[in-house]
From TrEMBL:
UniProt record similarity statement: Belongs to the PEP-utilizing enzyme family.
Predominant cellular place of this UniProt entry's protein: cytoplasm
Shown part of the complete sequence: 249 to 570 of 570
A GO term, aspect molecular function: phosphoenolpyruvate-protein phosphotransferase activity
Protein name: Phosphoenolpyruvate-protein phosphotransferase
Transmembrane domains' residue ranges: none
Length: 322
């Protein structure tokens, strides 16, 4: 099997009926890129920049960030690289930032909420990204977007830093796509409105599931409610993809669900464009997709979306794909 996978390393990803999708990888540091390329990754679908900020006693400088982003972009060449801006708070604490202790950290002051209130942290990251953009195919993504205003504010700060750099004579790429993570139900529900303003969506199912089911993703006692295949989740994913495609935008997924062999046929049928997963899942996923017909999976869509339970969904998918 390893040999069969290896043959697919430098191949694009097509379904049995000739539809193309993109298989990308999630990374945390520039050192992870080698593994992505060795495993046939067609892009980076999520670069979690938190690691630059963690395990240190102070903020990373703009220069350190510029070097890290440039390294990833250069290693990836023309391939797309989606960099997510800082997602701290929740489970990810930073000692030097003096984040407040909260009763519900996952519903609290984190990610874009923190960044919009702390421009001294956010602006250097945006500048580093803009400066690095000339070294590859950069796409910028904001995490934990709950409202359209948050997206507009974040994008305005980005444009402001771009203007400033251009005025200083610094080169910035003219075609950086700017998108958001869809990991809060409010954003999935009004994806139609967001789709007019963003360049792309990436569905973060790790959080989207926990917020939709009101089940902490780390709490074993309620893990029975953490259901990726619950029809509620599938309907939200469907809403996002339909809204995006109507506006000619693409949709990726960077939560664990994107690399899951039960979810992959469902997501193909729902029309997902990009699947971002851990590097080692890419070749198995490519092998699986080669043997799936997009047309057939699409024909199951309405049935799946109308089902009552996750269990029914799983049984149906297993029956149809075995
Ligand atoms: C997600 O929420 O699905 C996601 C990819 O982000 P993280 O796991 O970093 O919260
Ligand atoms: Mg998340």
């Amino acid at each position: 099997q390893q040999q069969e996978w290896a043959k697919l390393k430098d191949e694009p990803t097509f379904t049995s009926d000739g539809e193309q999708v993109e298989l990308a990888a999630n990374i945390g540091t520039p050192a992870d890129v080698e593994g992505v390329l060795n495993n046939g990754g067609e892009g980076i679908g999520l670069y979690r920049t938190e690691f630059l900020y963690m395990g240190k006693s102070e903020l990373p400088t703009e220069e350190e960030q510029y070097e890290a982003y440039t390294s990833v972009l250069e290693q990836m060449g023309d391939k797309p690289v989606v960099v997510r801006t800082l997602d701290v708070g929740g489970d990810k604490e930073l000692s030097y930032l003096d984040l407040p202790k909260e009763l519900n950290p996952f519903l609290g002051f984190r990610a874009i909420r923190f960044c919009l209130e702390n421009e001294h942290v956010f602006r250097p990251q945006l500048r580093a990204l803009l400066r690095a953009s000339v070294h590859g195919n950069l796409k910028i993504m904001f995490p934990m977007i709950a409202t359209l205003e948050e997206f507009r504010k974040a994008k305005a700060l980005l444009l402001d830093e771009k203007e400033a750099l251009l005025a200083e004579g610094v080169k910035v790429s003219e075609d950086i796509e700017v998108g958001i993570m869809v990991e809060i139900p409010s954003t999935a529900v009004i994806a139609r409105q967001f789709a007019k303003e963003v360049d792309f969506f990436s569905i973060g199912t790790n959080d989207l599931i926990q917020y939709t089911m009101a089940a902490d993703r780390m709490n074993q006692q309620v893990s029975y409610l953490y259901q990726p295949y619950n029809p509620a989740i599938l309907n939200l994913i469907h809403t996002v993809i339909e809204a995006a495609h109507k506006e000619g935008k693409w949709v990726g997924m960077c939560g664990e669900m994107a690399g899951d062999s039960i979810a992959i046929p469902i997501l193909l049928g729902l029309g997902l464009d990009e699947f971002s997963m851990s590097a080692t899942s890419i070749l198995p996923a490519r092998t699986q997709i080669l043997n799936l017909s997009k047309k057939e999976m699409t024909s199951f869509k309405e049935q799946l979306l109308s089902m009552g339970t996750a269990e029914e969904v799983v049984a149906f998918v297993k029956e149809k794909t075995e």
